[in-house]
Write a structure and sequence with these properties.
Layout lengths: L1 H8 L1 H32 L8 H18 L5 H12 L15 H37 L14 H4 L2 H37 L3 H45 L5 H31 L11 H14 L4 E6 L7 H22 L3 E8 L2 E9 L13 H11 L3 E7 L2 E9 L12 H4 L10
GO molecular function: ATP binding; phosphorelay sensor kinase activity; protein dimerization activity
Enzyme class: transferase
Catalytic activity: ATP + protein L-histidine = ADP + protein N-phospho-L-histidine
């Protein structure tokens, strides 16, 4: 019993009833236009004095409502009303105007149903409650028994008079049942008539994937550029502090390296944030590449106290710009890992073979430094960069050393745009055996 009352008079049922009454209010102008057509055709000046003529005006007005539903804002407004009053998940409904013929047809069907059901329920909501209440109080007021409302031909009998309160209550329940039923039907049909098409869902999924890809790219750039700089500056400052009183020359070099690192990183940060400001538009500083800053990267890493030997068996200036840029970030991440976790000499080798750029960053496994809280995303970023270029990457212990080995094709894929799906845009781990 309680569940039945909740379905008829609960909060959701009441909101759907309000939605239907709004449909009836929207239908009134069309009913008035219909009365201007029905009146002259029937020769009646006031069609609202006759229930059949009122229904006829309503029937004539609905096709006019169907035509006006082609207005672009109809679908967004109706979708907003359904989300607010019918308890429908917003993702199940379209947000923008109808664009195709099929979408406009579905919007017109929905608008006609809303106004049709709404007009009927709104009319019943105005007429039925007074009549039902009159029936319920009829035995208490003798004067009502002689009014047309009392239906003397029926309620003149004693048994009928005694049952009139029951009849009034039944009529109210019938009204609530009709309103709840019509509201449930509209709520069920709303996703089909106002919901996005498969093309809309695909476009939304692609937009979400593109946003996710941009966020992942931004996270990679920030991790690689800013993370490496902060690691280098921290170690440079620590080394300078330890020899502050004994080796002033080293302290000056460390402070100069800190100044250069931070100044360059500010420029890189501005370039990275350009991804947020203008999509893929560059900021004021171009992204570093092997051709433009490999020597500087090695010099700044050595200034942090990290011994680095580099073997470059190719001309960085001859590399494709995209490969050179991503290779720079990969080398930077390999050096950053060695700075943060190993503290042992690092060997970097860059060469070309069989149409691929081969990068190896290797350091002897030493006493690991205390890991940084929240770290561990760098190798996933390397894997993401390598995957987008169609290359391969492996990372992990190799004998008594830690090795990062990457192969990048010199002929990059036709498109290196972000993945088309959210699943493809997620960072993927390196192959088995990597960190």
């Amino acid at each position: 019993m309680r569940e039945a009352l909740r379905l008829l008079f609960g909060g959701r049922a009441r909101r759907r009833w309000v939605h239907l009454i709004l449909g009836g209010a929207l239908a009134m102008p069309y009913v008035l236009v219909g009365s201007l057509i029905v009146g002259p055709l029937t020769g009646v000046n006031d069609v609202f004095q006759s229930l059949p003529l009122q229904l006829g005006s309503f029937a004539v007005g609905l096709p006019i409502a169907t035509a006006t539903s082609l207005f672009p804002l109809t679908r967004p407004l109706e979708s907003a009303a359904v989300r607010a009053l019918c308890g429908i998940d917003g993702d199940a409904l379209a947000h923008g105007p109808a664009g195709t013929r099929a979408e406009r047809a579905r919007t017109a069907a929905w608008f006609t149903l809303h106004l049709g059901f709404g007009g009927i329920i709104a009319g019943m909501s105005l007429a039925v409650p007074p009549f039902a209440v009159a029936l319920m109080v009829l035995p208490l007021f003798a004067g009502l028994r002689h009014s047309p409302l009392a239906l003397p031909g029926v309620l003149g009998h004693g048994w009928a008079l005694a049952l009139s309160p029951v009849a009034g209550l039944a009529i109210l329940l019938a009204l609530a049942t009709c309103a709840a039923g019509c509201g449930a039907l509209l709520a069920r049909w709303a996703p089909a008539l106002l919901g996005p098409t498969p093309e809309d869902r695909l476009a939304a999924a692609e937009a979400r994937a593109a946003d996710l890809a941009v966020r992942n790219r931004l996270a990679r750039e920030l991790h690689d550029s800013v993370g490496h700089a902060l690691s280098a500056v921290t170690l440079q400052a620590s080394a300078a502090r330890r020899v502050l009183g004994s080796d002033p020359e080293f302290v000056r070099e460390a402070l100069a390296a800190i100044e250069e690192t931070t100044r360059r990183t500010v420029g890189e940060l501005d370039a990275v944030l350009g991804v947020l400001r203008d999509g893929d538009a560059p900021g004021t500083a171009p992204a570093p590449t092997l051709a433009t800053d490999l020597d500087g990267l090695l010099r700044r890493t050595r200034a942090a106290g990290q011994p680095v030997t580099a073997t470059v068996a190719t001309d960085p200036a001859a590399l494709p710009p995209l490969v050179s840029r991503e290779a720079y970030r990969i080398v930077q991440e390999g050096l950053s890992n060695a700075l943060k976790h190993a503290g042992t000499p690092v060997a970097v080798r860059i060469a070309t073979a069989d149409g691929h750029l081969e990068i190896t960053v290797e350091n002897v496994l030493g006493t690991a430094r205390v890991p940084r809280p929240g770290g561990g995303h760098g190798l996933r970023g390397v894997a993401d960069r390598v995957r987008l270029l169609g290359g391969t990457a492996q990372a992990g212990p190799s004998g008594d050393a830690w090795r990062l080995s990457v192969r990048l094709p010199l002929t990059t894929p036709r498109t290196t745009a972000p993945p088309a799906t959210a699943a493809d845009a997620r960072p993927r781990p390196l192959p088995k055996g990597s960190a």
